[in-house]
Prior knowledge:
This protein has 331 residues and is of the alpha/beta class. Helices cover 44% and strands 11% of the residues. The protein is built from 14 helices and ten strands. The strands form three sheets. It has a six-stranded mixed sheet with strand order 2-1-5-6-10-9, sandwiched between helices. Strands 3-4 form a two-stranded antiparallel ribbon. Helix 2 (30-41) runs parallel beside helix 6 and helix 11 (271-287) packs across helix 13. The longest helix has 17 residues, at 271-287. The radius of gyration is 23 Å and the shape is elongated. The two termini are 28 Å apart. Residues 1-15 and 220-225 have low confidence and may be disordered.
Amino acid sequence: xxxxxxxxxxxxxxxxxxxxxxxxxxxxxxxxxxxxxxxxxxxxxxxxxxxxxxxxxxxxxxxxxxxxxxxxxxxxxxxxxxxxxxxxxxxxxxxxxxxxxxxxxxxxxxxxxxxxxxxxxxxxxxxxxxxxxxxxxxxxxxxxxxxxxxxxxxxxxxxxxxxxxxxxxxxxxxxxxxxxxxxxxxxxxxxxxxxxxxxxxxxxxxxxxxxxxxxxxxxxxxxxxxxxxxxxxxxxxxxxxxxxxxxxxxxxxxxxxxxxxxxxxxxxxxxxxxxxxxxxxxxxxxxxxxxxxxxxxxxxxxxxxxxxxxxxxxxxxxxxxxxxxxxxxxx
Length: 331
């Protein structure tokens, strides 16, 4: 992540009322564009200084947005030369070419010091403009493989919400754009202001960029009445009990070796990997109830100790249990 700016630099930026430009184009992703508007364009009289905001059209002609909405932007690409921050919403299609004029304008703005942030598939615009060469980036988990193959000079991290360096930011799916925007506000105006904005949005004040964006739950490819499916269902109802391989094999009516082979064939994981994941997923469900002590969650899910609980939960989810609970129980 970018280093947080020192207070003096942050105050200097705030005094200038920095200009935020959101890129609009034909086929605009409405929700992601709305994220930029909600975070940076909404009047906030509770603060002494705030951002200026402009919608910048990436191309001439009428601009249509998803949902049957037309966008009429007053500013063109020349406005990017005055921008402090440029937001690129998810692009209209990962196979849709990026206009050369937009690429050129983004490069020129970045050379002048503008920060540039993409949401979801907007990363393909930044990559096409050559702004990401040699950098670690992210995008929605559905596009990470395509981004890697199309731009092999990038290091694509599929397991983070957002990442940024040298004034270039990329974020995962749409909601991760909110996390990135709050991160930038925190850098510019401090934690108190960012927390106030998050509270108004009824969002967690901070989700670390390193939190995983998607954790797949391993499921067997063929559940229909198989012994393996029956074993998994039984374990899920008794996660607090000890489940060594020998006991699993006995319940499934097979040998330990055969059980391991079938788990790999149907779920692509070992029996113990599956068990640990199920315990973590159940713990995540219980953590949504703020009244249950962490020690009781650990015991109910079969973790041998609180230390094991914290270690396994963080390994799979990306944050400690207590932070996960804080984010799931907003007040």
